[in-house]
Amino acid sequence: MQEIDVFASELFEEAKRFLEKAKEPCDGDGKRAFLHTALLLGICSLEAHINSICDEMSERKGLNLLDLSILQEKEINFEQGEYKLTARLKIYNLIDRIAYLERHFGVKGKHLDRTASWWSKLNEGIELRNSLVHPKAKRDITYEQVERAFDGILSLLDSLYMVIYEKRFPALGRGLNSRMGF
Q1: Contact between residue 13 and residue 180 where contact means Cβ atoms under 8 Å apart
Q2: Torsion angle of C-alpha atoms 180, 40, 53, 167, degrees rounded to 10
Q3: Longest dimension (CA), the chain
């Protein structure tokens, strides 16, 4: 297991623990802070898992500059008559990167089921995270919304593992119960 995989798993364990803490008795401010932290760490963990898969796929032979730009989130420049991958960050949409992984590295005939309930849960979770990171107004979130987002994250990762690796996502069996005790 790569170091980034361990880190991504730790982030999700932390997120699950903060979600558990949001269910424990505490004042409204504490509960809100735990829910915000859980959601932000949960989506952060998803991005770390996707980055890990992208890092692994970027080592494959036969990739062009655009492939590497998407996988490594690096900008392409045209310099001295040729295109080059730069060290500058180029952010791609998370859902677009997931679709790219599915399309370019998935086993032939296997696809993500975008009609499954987990797909809408995932998108709702990302939208909820975006409303916290790029606020237009104060937004309250609930335990159930974060729990749904986490279900979407786990289900996406499991489905993506099945599409690319033809095996289950290793952390799926732990569900939403954290092994952390802080």
Answers
A1: yes
A2: 60
A3: 64
Q: What is the pLDDT of residues 50-95, one digit of tens each?
A: 999 999 999 999 999 999 999 999 999 999 999 999 999 999 999 9
Backbone angle region of 62, left / alpha / beta, with phi > 0 → left and psi within -120 to 50 → alpha: left
Distance CA 103, CA 101 (A): 6
Parallel, antiparallel or unpaired: strands 74-79 and 82-89: antiparallel
Tell me the angle at which helices 117-133 and 143-164 cross, rounded to the nearest 10 degrees. 120
Q: Are 124 and 148 in contact (CB under 8 A)?
A: yes
- Compute φ and ψ for 138, nearest 5 degrees: -65, 135
Q: How far apart are CA 18 and CA 24, in angstroms?
A: 10
How many whole angstroms separate alpha carbon 179 and alpha carbon 159? 23
How far is CA 59 from its chain centroid? 20
* Structure confidence at residue 1 (pLDDT): 56
Say whether pLDDT at 182 is over 90: no
